[in-house]
Design the sequence.
């Protein structure tokens, strides 16, 4: 059974038909990437999965259990964590408080403490800056914090929305390294990216989204080789 | 001469202050405050206001000019305050040449006499120019003093001004303690402080201030080195003294000032309620008066025999929980339709809600329930059991005190709770808060409900205190006043709300001349606060820190290298 299964969802912003039947699956322990251009519907897909947007049609299943239609906080409690686009950390809260906020839906104190140690081990930089305000971190640190905060919910599926956005190349490299490492330790990841080249390097499978529809789906390796992807997303001739 | 490239700044600020000084004069403030002397026969509050404008001009000019040599600072300061004083003189000359009273009602002969120190046009003008220059020099000297010395002197000066201005308060207080009468006779003349009195206060406070600033750390060290038992004793002792003082306050202050305190308490209750909605959860509510009205009308309607309802609860204490509960329920009810609204839209809807409640109370259709324009009368006193007491402002003080303590306690606890954290997250970013697993609907409705319940409590006490309530007592301005006191005190800060209520509700009552200019000064205070201290008088720790750090961040940012500390393969 797939960890996360999205089945033919249609989402709207008012009357605008933003998602026209998106289907995708993420299996346990996988990194699956959803790539596409600006405005293709990547973030809308993520918002629909996390319940901020309700699909008018279609179903979303987490380990066989339907979650579409649930309010966002219940979807978080069922195990979908996310680092939203643009990081969106709480600027007025300290690093530690941001991380604690990530565990808001949980009450298993001992396990939370373990996850905090895990996040600090993953991002030692956050531990150094634990009492600094989130808003004063650099872009790369904010991205680490956003990922750390999402991990604090101990998600079954971690959704990352454009983690490389607006970061210097060295930092992009480092972020993707961390994604790979997280996955090795067992985290299932749905990665949404514009940086198709990088995303297809870490992912095992990928989906290409265009104007609200999946136009291509294959293993990451095949996608890298595909004519269409190379032309449209990898910038090769 | 000037080291700063912006040489025109002293002139600009001088011109600006001149305009402000003229506005203050034409607004009538100098005359209104001119009747109240700080030091009898020497300086009135009206003049002090004018001088303060000159002083501020000089101070700002010096600060901006970056001049360091005393001669330069004196030149810069005197220049800008001189320009400001020229404006004032120009007003007087213009006024004596043509009748300005046609346009400005306050531009009258008495004003000109005040502005020329009753010395005639020429001599008075010269005196005013000299005052301008002196203020400039004083500002330069203030800047030149070492920071510590400035602090030594500034505090006693502020105290002399405060004690002079608050003469009524001090004399009324001391009237209740006859043995202190000789002290007031020494300190005060009929209007303002006596000259020896002012000097005594200054010297005394200078000494106290010096001692305090010099020996504070020593005292703190000694306190820290005390054994825990005695430290606890000191702490409980001071809390005990504070409690006794709070309990004795109405007896010490007398009737009128107890009334003022009641008003402060009323606004404090509302301020703490609105603080939950606006300060904690970040939901801008401009119709908060609605919940105050609902609390008042619920208790009124339930306890007033005049309207002839089927259900009458004679006892105020039994009606009180209904008042609070109905207000809380109304808060939640208002919250449901506005759940998806943010910022400006929310503000407009709540604004409408406030007006709707007032109009419902006023409506003829509902007259059998609420009494329409005639209001609800004969509302019960908060008598306890069969005990019938006479209820005065002094006894209501205790009711407000109890209410405030309760509400402060609840606010403090809830702020540091899980719910408080959730509010903070919602205030920062609703979508992300949801992605953290926060139930947005419950969190917002709890904020509206809890905030409204405090307003309902305020309304319930208010209804009983006045015994009659009328729709026009619940107008929009109350919402604005409550919001202003939160902003001035410091949004989200509980001590800030207390200070805001004292400053915005208490202070104007103490200075009766103030009342005409109340909203003008509110507006000015809000503008100045937003420019100078946007975090409020007693800012919430977090907000202060945030603003502080962002100010630092305006410095060229350093991009830290994080590669090494990221997860290594």
Sequence:
């Amino acid at each position: 059974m797939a960890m996360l299964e999205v089945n033919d969802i249609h989402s709207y912003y008012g009357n605008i038909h933003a998602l026209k039947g998106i289907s995708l699956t993420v299996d346990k322990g996988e990194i699956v990437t959803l790539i596409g251009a600006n405005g293709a519907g990547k973030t809308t897909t993520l918002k629909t999965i996390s319940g901020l947007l309700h699909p008018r049609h279609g179903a979303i299943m987490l380990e066989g259990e339907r979650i579409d239609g649930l309010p966002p906080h219940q979807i978080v409690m069922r195990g979908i964590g996310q680092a939203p686009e643009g990081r969106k950390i709480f600027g007025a809260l300290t690093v530690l408080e941001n991380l604690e906020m990530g565990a808001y839906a949980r009450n298993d104190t001992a396990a939370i403490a373990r996850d905090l140690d895990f996040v600090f081990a993953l991002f030692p930089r956050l531990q150094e800056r634990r009492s600094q305000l989130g808003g004063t971190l650099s872009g790369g640190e904010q991205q680490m914090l956003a990922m750390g905060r999402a991990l604090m919910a101990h998600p079954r599926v971690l959704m990352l929305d454009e983690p490389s956005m607006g970061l210097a190349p060295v930092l992009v490299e480092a972020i993707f390294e961390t994604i790979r490492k997280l996955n090795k330790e067992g985290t299932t990841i749905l990665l949404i990216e514009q940086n198709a080249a990088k995303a297809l390097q870490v992912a095992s499978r990928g989906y290409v989204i265009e104007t609200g529809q999946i136009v291509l789906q294959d293993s990451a390796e095949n996608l890298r080789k595909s004519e269409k992807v190379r032309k449209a997303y990898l910038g090769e001739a | 001469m000037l080291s700063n490239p912006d040489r025109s700044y002293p002139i600009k600020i001088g011109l600006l202050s001149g305009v402000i000084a003229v506005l203050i004069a034409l607004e009538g403030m100098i005359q209104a405050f001119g009747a109240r002397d700080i030091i009898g026969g020497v300086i009135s509050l009206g003049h002090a206001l004018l001088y303060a404008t000159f002083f501020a001009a000089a101070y700002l000019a010096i600060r901006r000019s970056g001049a360091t040599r005393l001669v330069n600072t004196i030149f810069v300061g005197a220049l800008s305050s001189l320009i400001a004083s020229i404006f004032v003189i120009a007003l007087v000359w213009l006024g004596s040449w043509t009748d300005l009273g046609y346009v400005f009602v306050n531009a009258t002969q008495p004003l000109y006499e005040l502005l020329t120190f009753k010395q005639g046009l020429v001599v008075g003008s010269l005196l005013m120019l000299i005052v301008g220059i002196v203020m400039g020099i004083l500002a330069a000297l203030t800047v030149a003093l070492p920071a510590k010395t400035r602090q030594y002197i500034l505090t006693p000066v502020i105290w002399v001004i405060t004690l002079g201005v608050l003469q009524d308060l001090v004399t009324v207080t001391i009237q209740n303690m006859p043995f202190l009468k000789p002290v007031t006779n020494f300190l005060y003349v009929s209007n303002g402080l006596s000259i020896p009195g002012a000097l005594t206060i200054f010297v005394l406070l200078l000494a106290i201030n010096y001692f305090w600033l010099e020996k504070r750390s020593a005292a703190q060290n000694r306190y820290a080195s005390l054994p825990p038992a005695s430290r606890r004793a000191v702490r409980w002792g001071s809390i005990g003294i504070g409690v006794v003082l709070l309990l004795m306050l109405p007896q010490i202050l007398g009737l009128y000032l107890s009334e003022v305190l009641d008003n402060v308490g009323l606004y404090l209750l509302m301020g703490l309620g609105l603080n939950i909605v606006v300060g904690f959860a970040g939901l801008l509510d401009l119709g908060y008066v609605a919940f105050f009205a609902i609390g008042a009308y619920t208790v009124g309607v339930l306890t007033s025999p005049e309207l002839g309802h089927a259900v009458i609860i004679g006892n105020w204490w039994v009606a009180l929980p209904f008042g609070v509960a109905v207000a809380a329920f109304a808060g939640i009810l208002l919250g449901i339709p506005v759940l998806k609204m943010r910022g400006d839209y929310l503000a407009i809807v709540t604004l409408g809600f406030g007006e709707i409640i007032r109009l419902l109370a006023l409506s003829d259709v509902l007259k059998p329930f609420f009494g329409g324009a005639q209001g609800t009368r004969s509302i019960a006193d908060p008598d306890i059991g069969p005990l019938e007491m006479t209820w005065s402002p002094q006894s209501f003080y205790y009711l407000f005190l109890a209410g405030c303590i309760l509400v402060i306690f609840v606010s403090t606890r809830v702020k540091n709770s899980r719910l408080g954290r959730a509010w903070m997250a919602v205030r920062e970013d609703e979508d992300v808060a949801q992605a953290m697993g926060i139930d947005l609907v419950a969190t917002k409705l709890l904020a509206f409900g809890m905030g409204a319940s405090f307003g309902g409590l305020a309304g319930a006490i208010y209804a009983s205190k006045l015994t009659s309530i009328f729709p026009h007592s619940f107008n929009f301005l109350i919402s604005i006043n409550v919001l202003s006191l939160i902003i001035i005190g410091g949004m989200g800060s509980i001590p800030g709300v207390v200070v805001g209520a004292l400053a915005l509700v208490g202070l104007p009552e103490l200075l009766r001349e103030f009342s005409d200019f109340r909203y003008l000064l509110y507006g000015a205070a809000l503008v100045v606060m937003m420019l100078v201290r946007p975090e409020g008088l007693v800012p919430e720790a977090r907000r202060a820190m945030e603003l502080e750090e962002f100010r630092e961040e305006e410095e060229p940012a350093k991009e830290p290298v994080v590669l090494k500390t990221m997860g290594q393969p």
In short: The radius of gyration of chain A is 17 Å. The domain at 1-79+156-164+187-237 of chain A is CATH 3.40.50.300 (Rossmann fold).
